[in-house]
Amino acid sequence: MIDPFGRSIEYLRVSVTDRCDFRCVYCMAEDMTFLPKKEILSLEELDRLCTAFVNLGVKKLRMTGGEPLVRRNIMWLFRRLGRHLESGALEELTLTTNGSQLSRFASELYDCGVRRVNVSLDTLNPDKFVAITRWGKYDKVMEGLQAAKDAGLKVKLNAVALKGVNDDEFDHMVEWCGEQGFDLTFIEVMPMGDIGGEDRVDQYLPLSLVRSKLAEKWTLEESDHRTGGPARYMTVKETGGRLGFITPLTHNFCESCNRVRVTCTGMLYMCLGQDDDADLREPLRASDDDALLEDKIRAAIARKPKGHDFVIDRRHNQPAVARHMSVTGG
Ligand code: SAM
Ligand code: SF4
Question: Residue 12 and residue 279: Cα distance in Å, rounded?
Fold first, then answer.
């Protein structure tokens, strides 16, 4: 699938549920209303949908959410999708998780062919962890990380850079990840969805600043490592660990965008930061044959926009898109 700007679309992110066992302050309001069950694609429908994308050339699938591992019986989907790894059609099956359920599922994920996980963790301070996630249990996430390591999964931590919240910890996080053998990626906070009273201008911390601050303590070497995602990587000479930066605001990465996203109701978003979508649930449910579905996917890719228009400043203190990150899955 080639889009109008010549980008080859090989990466699909699937939000398998909008629900979550945490309520991170930059992601959700505490009193979120979730979608009614009947609107949500069944696991069988998600399998069909992902398979259609694989047949159209997608090489990398990432399950996300909400929290993907709180969806009931989600291992069935991982196991099913594992067949595309075995056939060679798919190069990578992976997930982004808050880590709360990893102690239960890490080894089963490995069994299904998953080799890497992204775990979102913004702080190594248990009190701050509660302040950020509201409902999270720090020890459970630590157990989950250990289980992932024990299972042989390669771990990358994702940390959202939050001004005045975790910005005093970045050196420690770099050091700790180096010791654990985890890669670490910092993410700029993005203006998505109403988060109930929290102010994004207060949260926003440009990663250009984070990077120059880190460079005072660490030797950061340019790296050409790519994972197919939007992060740009450096190597930390002292630890040997990789350090990534996802900078949608300070440096727009859209020119090399190879991804699209599907929500748990089957809405395809061609861009995380734009509202245009395509309803894939309708062709999925209209026919057992995938011809309609594939036509609709192709037509949607043909209108993938050039890029997002995220801005955070005092004059633009409204979400750039109304939906929450948990809908399209980050
Ligand atoms: N629940 C899983 C997790 O937290 O890893 C997967 C879904 S979560 C929406 C995916 C990623 O999006 C997480 O790393 C989270 O920190 C990030 N995220 C959520 N809201 C964000 C926002 N407004 N700006 C930047 N990143 C955000
Ligand atoms: Fe849940 Fe992930 Fe959003 Fe936090 S970032 S509330 S863990 S979906």
Answer: 15
Span 301-319, pLDDT tens digits: 999 988 876 555 555 555 6
Ligand 1 atom closest to residue 95's alpha carbon, by position in its atom list: 6
Residue 270 lies in a domain: yes
CA of 87 to the centre of ligand 1 (A): 31
Closest by CA position to 177, among listed 119, 137, 92, 105: 119
Residue 6 lies in a domain: no
How many angstroms separate the alpha carbon of residue 20 from the centre of ligand 1? 11
Residue 293 sits in a domain whose CATH number is 3.20.20.70
Per the structure, the count of domains in the chain is 1
Question: pTM of the full predicted structure?
Answer: 0.92
Ligand 1 pocket, CB under 6 A: 20, 26-27, 64-65, 67, 96-98, 120, 158, 160, 187, 189-190, 192, 325-326, 329-330
Q: Tell me, yes or no, whether 155 lies in a domain.
A: yes
Q: Which residues, including other chains, have CB under 8 Å from residue 13's CB and lie 6 or more apart?
A: 61, 62, 64, 259, 260, 261, 262, 328, 329, 330
Assign 289 to helix, strand or coil: coil
- Which pLDDT does position 198 carry in this prediction? 61
Per the CB < 8 A criterion, the answer to whether 191 and 318 are in contact is yes
Kindly give, in sequence order, each residue whose CB lies less than 8 Å from that of residue 38, ignoring residues fewer than 6 positions away.
none
Q: Is residue 4 part of a domain?
A: no
DSSP string, 228-288: SSS-EEEEETTT--EEEEE-TTTS--GGG--EEEE-TT-EEES-TTS--EEE-HHHHHH-S
| Domain that residue 193 falls in | 11-328
And the tokens for 297?
A: 């996917």
Rounded to an integer, the average pLDDT of 79-85 is 98
Task: Take residue 225 and report the two structure tokens written for it.
Answer: 């490592």
Ligand 2 pocket (Cβ < 6 Å) reads: 20, 22-24, 27-28, 65-67, 98, 120, 326
Decide: helix, strand or coil at residue 56.
coil
Is residue 279 within 8 A of residue 31, CB to CB? The reply is no
Ligand 1 site-directed mutation target among 67, 247, 325, most atoms within 8 Å of CB: 325
